[in-house]
């Protein structure tokens, strides 16, 4: 990757990742709390396990979780496979990179962006691919190595952003004309449900000894999409959830 040989201004190359010096000073507390939660949940995966995602062994404590998550992931990958040309894709909140890599294997050039250096290091180790660029950066303030994208994805990541409307506007700025934003597997609530959902999250983080994490886990209603054109590519319903163990979370396309 040329960007690693000559990093853009404000970045340095580290273990196959482009790292923003400014972002390092901003997101350290988030990374610490997020990783601590994952360790307590026993959900820090090995490289061998990451390479198999979204499939896990039947003995895994997360077997049911991944069986559910695969539905929206596979639906999206089928949709992506029908594109007529290779795309430039930004995967925001890419984590350990498994979803980023699945898009890359379809022939697309993908940038995986996160503010968790622990998981980005796993991604860079697991998926050494010439068309994947791993970036530790602030999507709002950093000047990304690529300026425009055909598609931006957030897979199980949207709820970690404090200002979702600002995020969507920023994503729109980063899109080529006719580009697409895809939000996959993040929870949304009715307005009347949000306070109770916040309490449940607080109680959960408190129960595992990391109350601080509630500051980084946000509860959104569909009102965040006011002013945006959205299409539900998948909308949860009780029948599919009960019969097929389908996702309780939507897949939303914004054009």
Quick structural overview:
This protein has 255 residues and is of the alpha/beta class.
List the topology elements.
Layout (H helix, E strand, L loop, with lengths): L1 H4 L5 E4 L2 E4 H6 L1 H13 L6 H6 L10 H19 L6 E5 L5 H7 L4 E6 L2 H10 L5 E5 L12 E7 L8 H10 L1 E10 L3 E2 L4 H14 L12 E2 L8 E5 L3 H7 L6 E4 L1
Parallel strand pairs: 2-5, 3-4, 3-6, 4-5, 6-7, 8-9
Antiparallel strand pairs: 1-2, 7-11, 10-11
Can you put this structure into words, describing what you see?
It is built from ten helices and eleven strands. It has a nine-stranded mixed beta sheet with strand order 1-2-5-4-3-6-7-11-10, with helices on both faces. The protein has 255 residues and is α/β, with parallel strands linked by helices. β1 and β2 (17-20) form a beta hairpin. The protein has helices at residues 2-5, 21-26, 28-40, 47-52, 63-81, 98-104, 117-126, 164-173, 194-207, 238-244, and strands spanning 11-14, 17-20, 88-92, 109-114, 132-136, 149-155, 175-184, 188-189, 220-221, 230-234, 251-254. The longest helix is centred in the N-terminal third of the chain and has 19 residues, at 63-81. It has one domain (2-230, 243-254): Rossmann fold (3-Layer(aba) Sandwich), CATH 3.40.50.150.
CATH superfamily, by name, is Vaccinia Virus protein VP39
Distance between the first and last residues' Cα: 30 Å
Question: Oligomeric form of this entry?
Answer: single chain
**Mean pLDDT metric:** 95
The CATH architecture category equals 3-Layer(aba) Sandwich
| Tally of strands | 11
Radius of gyration: 18 Å
């Amino acid at each position: 990757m040329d960007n690693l040989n000559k990093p853009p201004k404000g970045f340095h190359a580290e273990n196959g990742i482009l790292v923003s010096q400014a972002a390092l000073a901003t997101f350290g507390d988030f990374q610490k709390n997020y990783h601590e939660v994952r360790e307590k949940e026993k959900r820090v995966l090995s490289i061998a396990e990451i390479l198999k995602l979204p499939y896990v062994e039947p003995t895994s404590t997360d077997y049911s979780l991944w069986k559910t998550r695969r539905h929206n992931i596979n639906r999206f990958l089928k949709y992506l496979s029908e594109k007529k040309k290779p795309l430039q894709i930004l995967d925001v909140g890419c984590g350990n990179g498994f979803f980023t890599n699945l898009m890359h294997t379809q022939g697309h050039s993908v940038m995986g962006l996160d503010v968790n250096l622990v998981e980005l290091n796993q991604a860079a180790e697991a998926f050494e691919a010439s068309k994947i660029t791993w970036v530790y950066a602030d999507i709002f303030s950093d000047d990304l190595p690529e300026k425009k994208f055909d598609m931006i994805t957030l897979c199980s990541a949207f709820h970690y952003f404090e200002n979702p409307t600002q995020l969507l506007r920023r994503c729109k700025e980063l899109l080529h004309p006719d580009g697409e934003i895809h939000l996959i597997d993040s929870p949304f609530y009715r307005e009347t449900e949000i306070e109770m959902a916040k309490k449940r999250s607080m109680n959960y983080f408190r129960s595992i000894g990391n109350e601080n994490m509630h500051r980084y886990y946000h509860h959104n209603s569909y009102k965040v999409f006011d002013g945006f054109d959205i299409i539900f590519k998948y909308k949860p319903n009780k029948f599919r959830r009960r019969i097929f163990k389908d996702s309780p979370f939507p897949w939303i396309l914004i054009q």
